[in-house]
Amino acid sequence: YPFCYRATSPKAVVSTQSTGAQGSTMPFHLAIVGGAGYVFFQEGILLDIGSVWEATPTDTMPMLLKFYWLLILAFVAHQYPEMYFMRVKKEEMPDRIIGYTAYLVPLVGAYVTGLVYPATIVLVIHCTAEILGALSHIIESAGKTNYSQPIYRMWSVAFIIARTSIAGLAGLTFMKLKAAEELSQPRFIACCTVLAVLLALQFYLGWHFIQTLLTWRNQAQEVELAQKKADNFWQSRKEANREAKKMRAEKRAAQTTADPSKED
Fold it and tell me: Best label site of 24, 90, 99, 163, fewest CB within 10 Å?
């Protein structure tokens, strides 16, 4: 989906619309990482990440943190009407709507249930990996494949690390919520639902990523096999032409030997 993974092969031709989408989301990812660092620094959490669990779930959010989250929610929500202004094709709209919704639902759930502190860390982990993916996509669109491929490989590793880290963070948050005695049962269930949705999304993204890599590998093997067949075909044609030329030369030499007058 637009924020979650690349839908095309790293060696595929990059369309202008796809490049524009990557270019618009890269500042968004940078703003999330930079904004989270600034908010955590102002709140005194940056040097003491363990204090995040003391305020999870939170009943009151500082104004700066609330403003940060409202900006994120507003940006994701505005993607729906932006499809109209971007003249997105009708066949592409269902996938985009599903992608935006899969991004928006966990964010709204974290904001409503008060899981904003661990959710901010989740956003930083996710967006840090996606910055590499967007950067490789933009560089590739400029025709610099030699530079984009190493960055894309870094993104592939960072993507798996991000999925694993977010799943582990969701499990750790669940354990902290379970140990909180003052947490009411309805709110505990709501928080667990949000964590379950987040965890399911990580498993889906990881599964889709693996399936995509397998598809690319199969396509690469098919291309390599077709290339070998083409090389063998042209090699056999060259050998056949070489043999035909040799036979014609031998035939002319035999005719010249049999009839010396032709030589004169």
Answer: 90
